[in-house]
Design a protein that fits this description.
The complex is a heterodimer of chains A (340) and B (351). Chain A is mainly alpha-helical. Chain A has two domains: 47 residues, no CATH class; 237 residues, MetI-like fold (Orthogonal Bundle), CATH 1.10.3720.10. Chain A is 69% helix and 9% strand. A two-stranded antiparallel ribbon of chain A has the order 1-4. A two-stranded antiparallel ribbon of chain A has the order 2-3. Chain A starts with a helix and ends with a helix. Chain B has two domains: 225 residues, P-loop containing nucleotide triphosphate hydrolases (Rossmann fold); 110 residues, Nucleic acid-binding proteins (OB fold (Dihydrolipoamide Acetyltransferase, E2P)). The longest helix of chain B has 18 residues. Chain B is elongated. The chains are: A mainly alpha (340), B alpha+beta (351).
Chain lengths: 340, 351
């Protein structure tokens, strides 16, 4: 293709990517090293009132924001290095907690609490999503052709549901007087409160995400199974491979590039877990890194938003994703090189 | 040692019959070729023997044991596929070793057996390569090595040469012939290529629409085709088949008249092979204008219209004739085959 044609096709998407991805990213990156505060000046005011013999004067020192000629607050932005990151990560407290083996203390720092949950969430859902997706794909592939369509449709439904709505409906099913809680109570004979403690909420969040994303993995793997050479599978049957050995030596290797792809996508998505925290209203027990960034951006009582710390938190989330992706990216790069 | 017996073997899909009540005994160490056009049921027959397709009716016996209900892996067979069916994620060595590995053959034996199989198909230099880095011929040799490494009782080969180019096909064919001679294993080989069938087979089975047409050695099938289908399928070019009428030992039809043929009076199909007849200057049995002339290098093929068909005759390589010019062809009665006009079955003649 000629360069001009190539450029004409690529330019619009490139432009939008720069505008909506690269530019905000750079801006967040820069902001995470700066703090913007209103300029404050110290004003000494003397107030005198008429008195009987002498004037009564009081001097008062007040901190007031500097205003410009239009009456707007003048702000200054100053470079603070890694201070914002320190304010989020709290290395001093974290280090003290770690050296004292005090898990509770570490978990009392928002960032570490969020990191703990985010990592658990990501690493637990990943194998479940891949495994369940593969299982459904194999099952559908082995069902009769006539009922395959409806089965695929039903399997895909959870993926179509809007994430927040899905999370909410799970919450409503399991909330104090939700029907599933009532059913479980009737069945077990004990009081059940799924939203009273962290671990049950976490369990529901994990369950919800696997339920929601497994269909995506299923569709990808199912498509991959259609390109499987049937004769290779039959050769494995004749060679003596059991069902499990065929899966392990023939099917999974064939699907490996797709497994890597699904894992990449899922890692990126799961590490940014947010809807579940909002949908399940879990912030009292369980928070995620993405939710932490959001929380920092919420105006506090004085109406200030901690934009700089939020930027630092956002950058840390991104760094986390990159660290998780590196092994997978290295693998697919090696395969790519090996394939040629 | 494995003799294979098929008894009333039938395969149906709904109302469609793939293989119809086939009876066949394949002797131990025999090289049997199933030959036929696509859709004739030859591959289905093999797949039923392999256990990849379930038989609708009938029995399959391998070495005297009924194997109908058994999984492919329990039938002690090895199979070579048209698409090679190698494991792309494993190198050549691992591909050949795979049957040993999944069958729990003691690991100590693996290396020696893999190397022996690799030597037999001349693959020792490529053991570290992936299938993707090999040529088609090399891939098919890997598939062969994978089949022989386990020393099974039966080899099944499903059009193993079809994906190779013409030159490789010849050399790989020779290799298969040599291997089968060396290993002395019962082999069933499916092909639609009659040259492969003729060169490889101890016996050839010709099938059409799920029904066996003829079973016999390559020479028998070539020299005494059982019906017009076999006659028209075997040989290059295929046997010339002319329709006409036999009366008092004289066959006559469009542009043709051949005397001295023993057979019942009535409508018949008369066949002869292109290389048995000859072009003569005068007094031919077929007299017709030349339809086309083809130069093959070692011979010249002359075609004319006779007996309702295009009849081809092999002439000397320096023979030349203009299209449309009259040509005379001698067809002695001794080279003629007779078939009945209705069913196409061979009519045995005294001569």
């Amino acid at each position: 293709m000629r360069f001009r044609t190539f450029a004409a096709f690529v330019a619009p998407s490139l432009l939008l990517m720069v505008l909506f991805i690269a530019a905000p990213l750079t801006s967040v990156f820069v902001q995470s090293f700066f703090v913007t505060q209103p300029q404050i000046q110290r004003v000494e005011t003397e107030r005198c009132t008429a008195g009987f013999l002498e004037q009564q004067c009081t001097t008062e020192i007040k901190n007031v924001p500097v205003l410009d000629e239009n009456g707007a607050v003048v702000t200054t932005t100053r470079f603070v290095g890694l201070d914002n990151y320190r304010a989020v990560v709290r290395p001093d407290r974290a280090f003290a907690a770690l050296s004292a083996w005090d898990w509770q203390a570490l978990m009392s720092i928002d960032f570490w609490k969020a990191l703990r949950f985010t990592l658990t969430f990501t690493l637990v859902t990943l194998p479940l999503v891949v495994g369940l997706g593969l299982a459904i794909a194999l099952a559908v592939n082995n069902t009769m052709r006539s009922i395959r369509g409806p089965v695929i449709f039903v399997s895909l439904l959870p993926f179509i549901v809007t994430p927040v709505i899905g999370a909410l409906s799970i919450r409503w099913l399991f909330v104090g007087d939700g029907i599933l809680t009532r059913a479980m109570e009737a069945w077990s004979g004990t009081e059940i409160a799924m939203f009273a403690q962290g671990w049950t909420i976490e369990l529901l969040m994990l369950f919800y995400r696997v339920w929601h994303v497994a269909p995506f993995a299923f569709v990808i793997f199912y498509a991959g199974l259609q390109t499987m050479n049937r004769e290779t599978l039959e050769a494995a049957m004749v060679d003596g491979a059991s069902r499990f050995e065929r899966l392990r030596y023939v099917i999974v290797p064939h699907l490996m590039p797709l497994i890597v792809f699904v894992s990449l996508i899922h890692l990126m998505d799961a590490y940014r877990v947010f809807e579940e925290v909002v949908g399940f209203r879990s912030q009292a027990h369980v928070i995620s890194l993405q939710w932490l960034t959001y929380d920092l951006l919420q105006p506090d009582d004085a109406g200030n938003r901690a934009v700089s710390r939020a930027s630092a938190s956002a950058m840390l989330t991104m760094i986390g994703i990159v660290i998780l992706l590196v092994p997978l990216l290295r693998k697919s790069w090696r395969d790519h090189k090996g394939a040629r | 040692m494995a003799e294979i017996v098929l008894r009333n073997l039938t395969k149906r899909w709904g109302s469609f019959t793939g293989v119809e009540r086939t009876n066949l005994t394949i002797a131990d160490q025999e090289f049997l070729v199933l030959l036929g056009p696509s859709g004739c049921g030859k591959t289905t027959t093999m797949r039923m023997i392999a256990g990849l397709e379930e038989a609708s009716e009938g029995d399959i016996l391998i070495g005297g044991r009924r194997v109908n209900g058994l999984d492919p892996k329990d039938r002690d067979i090895a199979m070579v596929f048209q698409s090679y069916a190698l494991y792309p994620n494993m190198n050549v060595y691992e591909n050949i070793r795979f049957p040993l590995k999944v069958r729990r053959v003691p690991a100590a034996e693996h290396h020696e057996r893999v190397m022996r199989a690799a030597r037999m198909v001349e693959l020792t230099e490529f053991l570290e390569r992936r299938p993707g880095e090999l040529s088609g011929g090399q891939r098919q040799r890997v598939a062969l090595a994978r089949a022989i490494v386990r020393q099974p009782n039966v080899f099944l080969m499903d059009e193993p040469l079809s994906n190779l180019d013409a030159k490789l096909r010849v050399s790989t064919r020779a290799q298969i012939k040599n291997l089968s001679h060396e290993l002395k294993v019962t082999t069933i080989y499916v092909t639609h290529d009659q040259v492969e069938a003729m060169t490889l087979a101890d016996r050839v089975v010709i099938m059409k629409r799920g029904v066996i047409q003829q079973v016999g050695s390559p020479v028998e099938i070539y020299d005494r085709p059982a019906n017009t289908f076999v006659a028209g399928f075997i040989g290059n070019p295929a046997m010339n088949l002319m329709t006409g009428e036999l009366r008092g030992g004289v066959f006559s039809g469009e542009n043709v008249r051949i005397a001295g043929i023993n057979g019942p009076d009535g409508a018949v199909v008369l066949g002869f092979r292109a290389e048995d007849a000859s072009v003569v200057p005068a007094g031919g049995d077929i007299v017709a204008p030349t339809y086309t002339m083809e130069l093959l290098g070692d011979a010249t093929m002359v075609a004319v219209r006779a007996g309702g068909a295009l009849v081809t005759v092999k002439a000397q390589k320096d023979y030349r004739i203009e299209i449309g010019a009259p040509v005379e062809i001698s067809v002695p009665a001794g080279i003629c085959h007779l078939f009945d006009a209705a069913e196409g079955n061979r009519i045995e003649t005294a001569g």
